[in-house]
Amino acid sequence: MHAKENDTDCRPENLLSGIKNRLLQQLAMSVPGGGGSLRVALHRLRGVRIGKVVWIGYQVLIETGYPALVSIGDRAIIGVRSTIIAHFQELRGVTIKEDVYVGACAVILPGVTLGRGAIVAAGSVVTTSVPPMTVVQGNPAKRVARCEIPLDSKTSRREFIKHLKLEISNDMK
Question: Is the pLDDT at 74 greater than 70, yes or no?
Fold first, then answer.
């Protein structure tokens, strides 16, 4: 989703809505419980579009100024201390599709779509969109593997690794 300049998602916020938004963000960053909880509800109140059965980790920062530019699909997992920035100059919006796993301390930048079942490794900085069922890591995040099953709370580590197809790039040889 890339919002247009005149889109209602990008209207300058007034003082009261800005204060409300920041207070809800601070509360969401610190309340206990990540899945289907108060944390998810607080982000929804801010305007973040969030699907069903989503888990948002502790101290996750989701777009402070324009939360409506962020869309998170069903069964997504957003790791502890991750950051989602959805606007910078002409770049607008972040879309996180269904069954996406974002590792701890990852940074998702504006204009990015994370395809269904994509996995962002911990500490990665995602500057471009990620295709479905693809594992990325690094700064900037690069494709390192394809996955045949989503990594979710019900998938065992052993089962996930069994279905992982590593890609060897020239700089890994």
Answer: yes
Sheet holding 70-72, edge to edge: 49-50, 70-72, 94-96, 112-114
Q: How confident is the model at residue 2 (pLDDT cuts 50, 70, 90)?
A: very low
Q: What is the CATH number of the domain that holds 78?
A: 2.160.10.10
Residue 173 lies inside a defined structural domain of this protein:
no
Residue 2 in domain = no
- Distance, CA of 103 to CA of 129 (rounded, Å): 16
Residue 21 three-state SS: helix
- pTM of the full predicted structure? 0.86
**Residue-averaged pLDDT of the chain:** 88
User: For residue 107, how far is the Cα from the chain centroid?
Assistant: 8
For residue 103, is it within any domain?
yes
Q: How many domains does the chain have?
A: 1
| 21-51 confidence digits (pLDDT tens) | 899 999 999 888 766 688 999 999 999 999 9
The answer to the question of residue 152 being in a domain is yes
Smallest CA-to-CA distance from 70 within 127, 109, 27 is with 109
Give the range of the structural domain holding residue 156, as residue numbers without chain letter: 8-167
Beta-strand relationship, 142-147 and 134-137:
antiparallel
